[in-house]
Write a structure and sequence with these properties.
single chain; 328 residues; alpha/beta; D-Maltodextrin-Binding Protein, domain 2; ten-stranded mixed sheet; 12 helices
Length: 328
C-alpha cells in the first residue's frame, strides 16, 4: 500500500467515525416531522399560556414545514396533558407545554402518574414572567418596605390576595411571608378579577399576580405596582424595584413556560426542535407579541430547562412544607 493510499484510508475512516458519533441535524430533517405535530397544553383556551403557545406554534410550523396543532387539555396538576404526551410514541410528533406548574404539582401532590424529570425530555424554554406585588393607588403603602413594616407592627392584621391555593401566585405570597419573617393573612380567590375587586375595596391590602392580570388597571392608575418578583427588574415596569431590592434579600419567584417531549425522543429531533424554537423566539414580532402579555420571550438549551425544573421542584416543595399547605 502506498503512503497516499494509507493516508486516504485514514481520512475516510476518520470521516465515517465522525458521522457515526455525531448524527447530523440534516438527517433528522429528512424524516421529521413526517406529519403534523401536536402541542398539548395543560391550560384552557384564551389564557396567557394558550395565546403564547399558539404564537410559538405558528412560527414553529414555518420552521418545521408541518402544521403544529395546539390542543388544550386542562386539569389539576397538568395530569391530563402529561398523560396525553406520554401515551404517544417518543418520536417528536407529540409535544407538551411544560411550566413551573409541573414542578409545583410534583411538590404538591402525594403521587403523580408522571415524573417531570424522568418521563420527559426538555427541549427549550419559551418565556418567563414575574409576579407583580401591587396595591390600590389610594393605599397608605407606597413601597413594599412600607407594607412589610406595617405587617411587622401589626402581626396578622393585613391581607394579601392571590388566586387559588397552590398556584404560583399563592406560593409567591407564601414565600414572601416566609422570607420576610412577617405575619399576614393570605386570602385565596377564584380568579384574578376577584382579587382585583378585593384590592380596590381594601379587603386585601396587597395582591400578588402576573403583569397580564393587572396590566389595564396599572395603566389606568387604579393599581400601583410596589415590586416585581424576579432576580432583576421586570422590563415591563423597569422603574419598580424587585422584592429583593425592597428588603427581602434573595427573594425570587419567576413563572415560565417551555416545551418538552416524552423521554426517549431522539437527540437529533430534540436538537432540531430546539434550533427551530430559538429562531422563532428571536424574531421581533414574537418578542413584541409576548411582551404585550407580560412575558419575556426566552429560549434555552434542554439542559438549562432541566435544571430550572429541578430547582423549582426543590424550591416549591420547601415553600409548601413550610407553609403547611396540605398535600393533595
Amino acid at each position: 500500500m502506498t503512503h497516499n493510499e494509507y493516508t486516504r484510508r485514514q481520512c475516510n475512516s476518520g470521516f465515517l467515525a465522525v458521522l457515526a458519533a455525531f448524527p447530523l441535524v440534516a438527517q433528522a430533517q429528512q424524516h421529521y416531522p413526517a406529519r403534523p405535530v401536536r402541542l398539548i397544553l395543560p391550560f384552557g383556551a384564551a389564557g396567557v399560556a394558550d395565546v403564547t403557545a399558539r404564537l410559538a406554534a405558528e412560527r414553529l410550523a414555518e420552521k418545521l414545514g408541518q402544521r403544529v396543532v395546539v390542543e388544550n387539555q386542562p386539569g389539576p396538576g397538568g395530569i391530563a396533558a402529561a398523560r396525553a404526551v406520554l401515551s404517544q410514541p417518543a418520536d417528536g410528533h407529540t409535544l407538551g407545554l411544560a411550566s413551573n406548574g409541573n414542578a409545583v404539582a410534583a411538590a404538591l401532590y402525594r403521587a403523580l402518574p408522571y415524573d417531570p424529570l424522568k418521563d420527559f425530555s426538555p427541549i427549550s424554554l419559551l418565556g418567563a414572567f414575574d409576579l407583580i406585588l401591587a396595591t390600590g393607588t389610594g393605599s397608605e403603602f407606597t413601597s413594599l418596605a412600607d407594607f412589610i413594616g406595617a405587617a411587622r407592627a401589626r402581626p396578622g392584621a393585613l391581607n394579601v390576595g392571590t388566586i387559588n391555593v397552590g398556584s404560583t401566585q399563592h406560593l409567591g405570597a407564601a414565600l414572601l411571608k416566609s422570607m420576610s419573617g412577617v405575619d399576614f393573612q393570605i386570602v385565596p380567590y377564584r380568579g384574578s378579577p376577584d382579587v382585583l375587586v378585593a384590592l380596590l375595596r381594601n379587603d386585601v391590602q396587597l395582591m400578588v399576580d402576573f403583569y397580564a392580570a393587572m396590566k389595564s388597571n396599572l395603566q389606568d392608575g387604579k393599581v400601583r405596582a410596589l415590586a416585581s418578583s424576579g432576580a432583576k427588574r421586570s422590563p415591563f415596569i423597569p422603574d419598580v424595584p424587585t422584592v429583593a431590592e425592597s428588603g427581602v434579600a434573595h427573594y425570587e419567584a419567576v413563572s415560565w413556560n417551555g416545551i418538552w417531549a416524552r423521554s426517549g425522543t431522539a437527540p437529533d429531533i430534540v436538537e432540531l426542535l430546539n434550533g427551530a424554537i430559538r429562531e422563532s423566539l428571536g424574531t421581533a414580532e414574537i418578542k413584541e407579541r409576548f411582551a404585550e402579555l407580560g412575558i419575556e420571550a426566552q429560549a434555552s438549551t434542554p439542559d438549562e430547562l432541566r435544571i430550572r425544573i429541578e430547582r423549582d421542584l426543590a424550591k416549591w416543595r420547601a415553600v409548601i412544607d413550610q407553609a403547611g399547605i396540605p398535600k393533595q
